[in-house]
Design a protein that fits this description.
By secondary structure, the protein is mostly helical. It folds into 2 domains: 87 residues, lambda repressor-like DNA-binding domains (434 Repressor (Amino-terminal Domain), Orthogonal Bundle), CATH 1.10.260; 39 residues, no CATH class. The chain is built from 7 helices and no strands.
């Protein structure tokens, strides 16, 4: 039986390229998504779980791995199940864009077919926040239906 290196097997840990593990990047991006949807700052999230905002930044970038107990704490503060952080994760974790790869500049070229996740865009987050600030449920529902109709009409014209 061979000794394990630092208690890790398989793809655990940082890849040999020195870039963050794609799974850590995905989990961190889901933390950022939920925090932003709630309108919570990195500082407030850090205070709620006993961390500095710099540590929250590192988690969100995937630079630091989030342990199981910390992930549980985050799920409670962000009011989501732990599984939320793994939702929408591709079957091939290596296809997850890292912060270096998604910046487009240095490193590998981006695939021309790659479209960024619309849920990761600031515009989407601002739209969702504004939508939920509408206090009248009927107005909110009508706006939702209008938006769907406009999108469907635009798609029908494009076909």
């Amino acid at each position: 039986m061979q000794p394990q290196t630092r208690g890790r097997r398989g793809t655990g840990g940082r890849p040999k390229t020195g870039k963050p593990n794609p799974i850590d990047v995905h989990v961190g991006s889901r933390v950022r998504l939920r925090r932003t949807l709630l309108g919570m700052s990195q500082e407030k999230l850090g205070e709620a779980i006993g961390l500095t905002f710099q540590q929250v930044q590192k988690y969100e970038r995937g630079a630091n791995r989030i342990g199981a107990s910390r992930l549980f704490d985050l799920s409670r503060v962000l009011d989501v199940p732990v599984s939320f952080f793994f939702d929408d994760m591709p079957a091939d974790p290596d296809s997850i864009p890292t912060s270096e790869g998604s910046a487009g500049g240095f490193g590998e070229e981006k695939s021309s077919s790659f479209e960024p996740d619309p849920m990761a865009k600031r515009e989407t987050l601002e739209l969702v926040r504004a939508y939920y600030r509408i206090t009248d449920p009927q107005v909110r529902k009508r706006l939702f239906e209008l938006t769907k109709s406009v999108a469907n009409a635009a798609n029908a014209e494009g076909d």
